[in-house]
Amino acid sequence: MHEMALAESVVRLAEETATAEGARRIRSVIVEIGALSCVEPEALTFCFDAVSRGTLAEGAELRIERIDGAAYCWRCERTVPIAARTDPCPECGGYQLQPTAGTEMRVQAIEIE
């Protein structure tokens, strides 16, 4: 479960930002997660709640925004939507795909007070 390490990194980043801004509390954290990132949103939420206890982020809402997956098909020579890394090209059925979107995970915003 690598989501625990990811949640710890998100909380640490949010706390560093909140402390630098002189905040008393973190209200919410918005995280973008790509469909091809191999991160389970439910597991990340569970881990975020666990690791934020006793921090400025305790009780904060973790909002997850999903980013669709896409890949370049070398056979079709164009970008196509995919839901998983193991999906074939929806146009030609081939597997010569290079992911171009949906592999990322990043903190998009932190709301503090």
From TrEMBL:
Q: Name one Pfam family in it.
A: HypA
Q: Which UniProt keywords apply?
A: Metal-binding, Nickel, Zinc
Which molecular-function annotations from GO does this UniProt entry contain?
A: metallochaperone activity; nickel cation binding; zinc ion binding
Give me the residues that bind Zn(2+), please. Answer: C73, C76, C89, C92
Annotated Ni(2+) binding sites: H2
Q: Name one GO biological process term.
A: protein maturation
The answer on whether this UniProt entry bears the keyword Amino-acid biosynthesis reads no
- The answer on whether this UniProt entry bears the keyword Oxidoreductase reads no
Query: What is this protein's function?
Result: Involved in the maturation of [NiFe] hydrogenases. Required for nickel insertion into the metal center of the hydrogenase.
Q: Which NCBIfam families match?
A: hypA
Please give the family membership noted in the entry. Answer: Belongs to the HypA/HybF family.
The entry's protein name is Hydrogenase maturation factor HypA
The lineage is:
Bacteria, Pseudomonadati, Pseudomonadota, Hydrogenophilia, Hydrogenophilales
